[in-house]
Amino acid sequence: MIITLSNRKRGKDVMPLEVNILGYNHKQETIDRPRGMSLYQWFYCERGSGALTVDDQRMVIREKQGFLLHPHVTHTYRPLSDDWTVHFVGFKGPMCATLLMQLGMYDSGAYYFSDPDFFRDRIADMFHLYMRDRQDHNGIAAACFHLLLGLSERISQVEHIGTYNANPIVDRAISAIERRYMEPLSIEDIAAEAGVSNEYLCSLFKKTVGQTVHHFLTVTRIVNARLQLLQFPDRPIADIATDCGFRSASHFCSVFRKHSGSTPAKYRQTANISDLHN
To answer: Taking every annotated instance into account, which residue ranges of this chain make up the domain HTH araC/xylS-type (predicted)?
Structure first.
């Protein structure tokens, strides 16, 4: 469900913060905005997964993750699964830039949510306020302000996999990796989904992305493993290894140590949510 709110002015002055659009349990379609929007936008992924590209930086958005978009930032987002469902709010006003800077929301991009219920509940509150009184702009703005204040303590920016210039063949290959990294995925499988030969894909991928297909697949698995180690501190490492596409726990530990500088167990003991920035 999406609600678009009409702007309200007080005399000649716009409200310092006003909500312009709300989305709740919205099955997200593909959006491509070369010039961005005039709004700030916060999204939270309730189900499924999607791909976000911001200024040529590509990120995958999964459950318990979301993303922030600043005004006039080039962006594209599209579903990677049929059930990609999001909640979101779009807002603007003269106080927004200063407020977001003070709250540490400096960058457009993907974020991890340590308390998913908080975002969902605040969006639901704004929907209830709107349904009760569609003219209660002050109440909805106050609820959005509460959302931003609380959200600042519940988010951490997620690292992105890489930056590259768009290419449809490479896009298809990366989409295959993002959707199937948990499988025993081969170069042949990825090339087949991209619709080209193995040799052509490997050459084009390295030229476009600056790394090999195999390295990109490995880093994708490591990034998702790091996230699971932090999200699910009691989950067996062997299960995480399997879920992230590694052939065994020992193989996972070896690759993880090479890329992260420590074993998965040590990383889990010493890391915290802020380490997702690194």
So the answer is: 171-270
Domain boundary among 157, 190, 212: 157
User: 12, exposed or middle or buried, with CB in 10 Å at 0-12, 13-18, 19+?
Assistant: exposed
pTM of the model as a whole: 0.64
Which among 165, 187, 164, 167 is positioned nearest to 177, based on CA atoms?
A: 187
DSSP 8-state symbol, 93: -
The 10s digit of each residue's pLDDT in 44-76 is 999 988 888 887 777 888 888 999 999 999 999
Task: For 175-211, give the DSSP string.
Answer: HHHHHHTTS---HHHHHHHHTS-HHHHHHHHHHHHSS
- Which CATH number does the domain housing residue 124 bear? 2.60.120.280
CATH number reported for the structural domain that contains residue 203 in this entry? 1.10.10.60
- Residues of the chain whose pLDDT is less than 70? 7-14, 159-166, 271-278
CA distance 143 to 149: 10
The tally of domains found in the chain comes to 2
Residue 117 is part of which domain span? Answer: 2-157
pLDDT tens per residue, range 151-168:
998 998 876 665 566 688
What size, in residues, is the chain? 278
